[in-house]
Amino acid sequence: MGDEVKLFGMWASPYSRRVELALKLKGIPYEYIEEDLSNKSPSLLKYNPIHKKVPVLVHNQKPVAESLVILEYLDETWETHPFLPQHPYERAKARFWAKFIDEKLFPTVAKLRHMAGKEKEEAIEEAQQQLKIMEDELKGKQYFTGQRMGYLDIAANVLIWFRVVGELIGETVLTAEKFPLICEWIEKLMQIDAVNENKVPFR
Ligand SMILES: N[C@@H](CCC(=O)N[C@@H](CS)C(=O)NCC(=O)O)C(=O)O
């Protein structure tokens, strides 16, 4: 086909990892370029001048930035292993939840690392309320996208990262007792080769 696909990423970025996971699930060959975010490459600044962030996918010299946008681009461009739901309403719901993860849940959990005392307790409470919403979304389903791993499962890979953050900050934010369905979902995802190969930052 002669497609040239490059991914500018960073190993510990859950956003980069989403894109790598999607590329692997679809079996798209790509060149990976690891960025040092404290010393960004001229290529990254050229390809993502607005946000100057990873990930950036460069397909035949054309850059696409923002992980969720990249996921949709990959699904629309490569037909193998389609991961967005077929029905427009299901697609809308998947996008809604991906936005919830990025705009609410992820910032709430990420800020825990910089907090202490009462402020932190309140943020943990808030994070757990949001995780409960995600837990409820999994009721009666194998995956967030339904019976098959899809777009929202890829977007939700940050939940795996949260378990690590939980340990790093000495907290128990996302525990199997409180969130059995999310934890089972993490175990299930880990049995998929592409996810397992892709788990480096979650060690
Ligand atoms: N909304 C973006 C977020 C990407 C993002 O925050 N990337 C971080 C790494 S996890 C980054 O490149 N940070 C560099 C910086 O902020 O200067 C996406 O979904 O791609």
Automatic annotation (TrEMBL):
<protein>
    <recommendedName>
        <fullName>glutathione transferase</fullName>
        <ecNumber>2.5.1.18</ecNumber>
    </recommendedName>
</protein>
<dbReference type="InterPro" id="IPR045074">
    <property type="entry name" value="GST_C_Tau"/>
</dbReference>
<dbReference type="InterPro" id="IPR004046">
    <property type="entry name" value="GST_C"/>
</dbReference>
<dbReference type="GO" id="GO:0009407">
    <property type="term" value="P:toxin catabolic process"/>
</dbReference>
<dbReference type="GO" id="GO:0004364">
    <property type="term" value="F:glutathione transferase activity"/>
</dbReference>
<dbReference type="InterPro" id="IPR040079">
    <property type="entry name" value="Glutathione_S-Trfase"/>
</dbReference>
<dbReference type="InterPro" id="IPR004045">
    <property type="entry name" value="Glutathione_S-Trfase_N"/>
</dbReference>
<feature type="domain" description="GST N-terminal">
    <location>
        <begin position="3"/>
        <end position="82"/>
    </location>
</feature>
<dbReference type="InterPro" id="IPR010987">
    <property type="entry name" value="Glutathione-S-Trfase_C-like"/>
</dbReference>
<dbReference type="InterPro" id="IPR045073">
    <property type="entry name" value="Omega/Tau-like"/>
</dbReference>
<feature type="domain" description="GST C-terminal">
    <location>
        <begin position="87"/>
        <end position="203"/>
    </location>
</feature>
<dbReference type="Pfam" id="PF02798">
    <property type="entry name" value="GST_N"/>
</dbReference>
<dbReference type="GO" id="GO:0005829">
    <property type="term" value="C:cytosol"/>
</dbReference>
<comment type="similarity">
    <text>Belongs to the GST superfamily. Tau family.</text>
</comment>
<dbReference type="GO" id="GO:0006749">
    <property type="term" value="P:glutathione metabolic process"/>
</dbReference>
<dbReference type="Pfam" id="PF00043">
    <property type="entry name" value="GST_C"/>
</dbReference>
<keyword id="KW-0216">Detoxification</keyword>
<keyword id="KW-0808">Transferase</keyword>
<dbReference type="InterPro" id="IPR036249">
    <property type="entry name" value="Thioredoxin-like_sf"/>
</dbReference>
<dbReference type="InterPro" id="IPR036282">
    <property type="entry name" value="Glutathione-S-Trfase_C_sf"/>
</dbReference>
